Amino acid sequence: MIGARSEAGIRRVARMGCHFLPIGEKRDVELYRAACAECGRPPGQVRILRSCYVAEDYERERGQLWPHMKYLLDSYTQWMFEADDTPGDKRKLADGFRDVGNFFAGTAGEVVDQIGRFRDDVRPDEIVLIFHFPGLDWKVSRRSMERFAARVLPHIR
Asked: What are the φ/ψ torsions at residue 2 (nearest 5 degrees)?
């Protein structure tokens, strides 16, 4: 399982015949599968990591979550900024940035819909979910995981 973000890196993963761990962009998954075909080999598994939070009332809870989500977003953005291997890496997050497109977050119904749309669009073989954000109280994370198990998992096809 190898992660890559640049076109050259993704093609390298295909040439090596490895499974792929992309950041989750549809175009990266498509490029990997096409590059595998060009190399005359079947694609390996595509696994995508996503953070997830299942809320009872997301509008009320997201204020508590935001500092922890922002820390995670800022950390990844800094690493990408330093790597500078993909167009757009040299931008920084603004303090008010709240695009949590890399997360599944909301009520159980919203998370079911988000996962379904993501799977239909990107078509990964597996989605690996991370339920804890840096610095967040573990009890809060655990309640989210329990809601996921009871209210989301039964609806995932």
From this structure: -125, 135
Q: What is the torsion angle, in degrees rounded to the nearest 10, for the CA atoms of residue 105, residue 122, residue 85 and residue 11?
A: 150
* Residues with Cβ within 8 Å of residue 10, at least 6 apart in sequence: 4, 20, 22, 28, 31, 32, 35
Q: Which residues contact 149 (CB under 8 A, 6 or more apart)?
A: none
Fill in the DSSP letter of residue 87: T
Whole-prediction pTM: 0.85
Q: What pairs with residue 52 in β-bridges?
A: 104
Torsion of CA 12, 49, 87, 98, to 10 degrees: 180
Q: What secondary structure letter does DSSP report for 94?
A: -
Contact yes or no for 41/24 (Cβ under 8 A): no
Q: How many residues does the chain have?
A: 157
Q: For the segment 11-62, what is each residue's pLDDT rounded down to a tens digit?
A: 999 999 999 999 878 999 999 999 999 999 999 999 999 999 999 999 999 8
Q: Which residue has the tokens 């939070």?
A: 53
